[in-house]
Amino acid sequence: MSTSLLLTIAVASVLLLLILVIKAKVHPFVALLVVSLLVAITTGIPVSNIMKVIMSGMGGLLGSITIIIVLGSMLGGLIEASGGAESLAQRFTGSLGIKRTVMALTLTAFILGIPVFFEVGFIIVIPLIYGFAKVAKVSPIKFGLPMAGVMLTVHVALPTHPGAAAAAGLLGADMGRLMMIGILISIPVGLMGYWVAKSMNRRNYALSIDVLEQLQLAKPETGIAAEPAPDIRDRIPGAGLIASLIIIPIALIMLGSLAATELPEESLLREVIVLIGTPAIALLIALGLATYLLGIRRGWGKDKIEQIMGDAIPTSAAVIMVAGAGGAFGKVLVESGVGKALAVSLEAIHLPLIPAAFLLSLALRASQGSATVAILTTSGLLTQAVTGLDSMQLVLVTLSACFGGLGLSHVNDAGFWVVTRYLGLSVADGLKTWTVLTTLMGLTGFALVWLAWVLV
After folding, report:
1. Where are the transmembrane segments (predicted)?
2. Looking at the predicted structure, is the pLDDT value of residue 148 above 90?
3. What is the percent of the chain with per-residue pLDDT over 70, rounded to a whole number?
4. What is the pTM of this model?
5. How many structural domains is the chain composed of?
6. What are the contacts of 371-374 at 24+ separation with CB within 8 A?
7. Where are the alpha helices (DSSP H) in 264-390?
8. Which helix (H) or strand (E) holds 167?
């Protein structure tokens, strides 16, 4: 199939998906599956392989996020039911004020994002976002949008994450220098993202009923404003305890990452720390501690704890299924050859190296959804082109590809669905906010990299 036809099908599939979700009000899960099927048929994927591709795309993504999302939702449910998130929010807001609190949380998200995968870190901080939104009586988007933006920035730009680390290996960039320059550039990119998100938050966006219920602003059956449910007889846990329960899984994940690189492979201690530092195990440990410290120790019965954990599953299930369908759509686009067609088209233009790395990665990100795949594919295509460059130039080419993977997060990206669903945004509003924010941050990172290239 010709390159132009593949690109036309890709554009048409995204437009059809938006029409189905925004105009026809088809549920995103169903719309993503329908469009995935149509793309697979029209691009010539063998009929016997179509469902295998769709299921592998969905299964591959669900295998990595299902446990994390469910455990994170349960942990958030316990923190929410205890009143702890509001306690922590009141402490911060009272000390800093709302404006400074948003900035402080964005800075916190930047730091947390360095060792923790984007989706994992965002799910862990969701209880905080809801708690602060309740106390400040504002939309969770006010806190969540800048936090998500900076977490994704460090996820794509720093070699503590797979995309940047593998890209450095493919292009021969020095890992330490990449980390240092990546942080230096990510800081102004994060600041820009904070100010863009602040500007976006001047507008009020309609929230989904699920998020309104989480914030206790609507009754599930009627949508009528309601008073928050009264707390149980015991006192609300302190801000320090809640902060500790949120920090513990992040600290364990960081320890696991350090142990994997610093301790000898034959070490038993290394194996133990790496195990407890995997995101699922770290969250399971935090959930066990929360169950005891927020529940059992404070007089909650087994039935109440089971109910709180059970109530967390339906909300997380909606996020999981839509994100999984997004993974299926992305997999179909990859198998159809759309990403390769885009790469070949851009490579044929013979752009200068820095903009070529950025545009290749950005186009691949837009075509198939995964930032990591976009960064790795771009790096693989540029391995010959970077021959003869010095150490700093190799780092800058790598970062250009990384910031291309930051932009254009949209409906074929599982991260788009995680952010928009948890923040209560519609697809249209998600495109106006999250997609625009990630793209502007990616462009800012690229501009800074190109400036550094010119100066060195």
Report:
1. 34-54, 61-82, 102-129, 141-158, 178-197, 239-260, 272-296, 308-329, 341-364, 395-419, 431-453
2. yes
3. 88
4. 0.73
5. 1
6. 371/152, 371/155, 371/156, 371/163, 371/405, 371/406, 371/409, 371/413, 371/415, 372/161, 372/162, 372/163, 372/166, 372/405, 373/334, 373/339, 374/163, 374/339, 374/401, 374/404, 374/405
7. 268-276, 279-290, 302-336, 338-347, 353-368, 371-381
8. helix 162-171
Q: If DSSP states are collapsed to H, E and C, what string results for 354-396?
A: HHHHHHHHHHHHHHHCCHHHHHHHHHHHCCCCCCCCCHHHHHH
**Domain annotation covers residue 233:** no
| Count of alpha carbons within 13 angstroms of residue 240, beta-carbon side | 0
Instruction: Determine, yes or no, domain membership for 232.
Output: no
How many Å apart are CA 87 and CA 83, to the nearest integer? 6
Does 229 reside within a domain?
no
In single-letter form, the type of residue at position 140 comes to P
Q: What angle do CA 413, 427, 105 make, to 5 degrees?
A: 75
CA pair distance 304, 335, nearest whole angstrom: 47
Residue 161 is given by DSSP the state S
DSSP assignment of 193-238, as one string?
HHHHHHHHTTSPPPPPHHHHHHTT-S-TTT----PPPPP-SSPPPP
**CB 96 within 8 Å of CB 133:** no
Nearest to 330 by CA among 236, 406, 253, 416: 416
Q: What pLDDT does residue 96 have?
A: 66
pLDDT in tens, 314-333: 767 776 787 777 778 778 87
CA distance 296 to 289: 10
Tell me what the mean pLDDT of segment 334-350 comes to. Answer: 72
Euclidean distance between CA atoms 422 and 58, whole angstroms: 20
Q: What angle is formed at CA 265 by the lines to CA 402 and CA 116, rounded to 5 degrees? A: 35
Range of the domain at 91: 3-216+238-455
Amino acid at 332: V
Phi, psi dihedrals of residue 436, rounded to the nearest 5°: -65, -45
Alpha helices in 43-140 (DSSP H): 47-82, 84-113, 118-136
Residue 231 included in any domain: no
Question: Any idea what DSSP says for residue 291?
Answer: I
- Residue 225 pLDDT greater than 60, yes or no: no
